[in-house]
C-alpha cells in the first residue's frame, strides 16, 4: 500500500512538472503573454494540495474508510477556495479575468485534479481488494 502511495505522489509531481513545461512551451511558441509568476504559483499550490489530499486519504484510509469520498470532496473545495484567496484578487484587480489568467490557474487545477482522482481511485480500489 505504501508503494502505491509513493508512486501516486510521484505521478502527481511528474505530471504537474511535465504539464508545466508543455504549457509554458506552448505559451512561448505562440508568443502569448504569460503570467509566469502566477503560472508557477498555480502549479505549486495545486500540486501541493493534490499531494496533501492524497496523503490525507492515505492516512485516514482505515479509520474513516466510509468517509473517504467526503474527505476527497472537501479537499477539492479547499483547492477551489485557494483560487479565491490567492489568485482571484490578482486576476480580477482590473475588473476582468482574461482567458490567459483563467487558463494559468485552470490548467494546473484540472491536471492535478485528474491525476489526484486517478491516484485516489487506485488507492480506494486497493482498499476494497484488501478486504
From TrEMBL:
Keywords of this entry: Membrane, Transmembrane, Transmembrane helix
Cleaved signal peptide residues: none
TM segment ranges: 9-27, 39-60, 67-90, 102-125
Top-rank taxon, per record: Bacteria
Pfam families: DUF6168
InterPro entries named in the record: DUF6168
Name this protein carries in UniProt: DUF6168 family protein
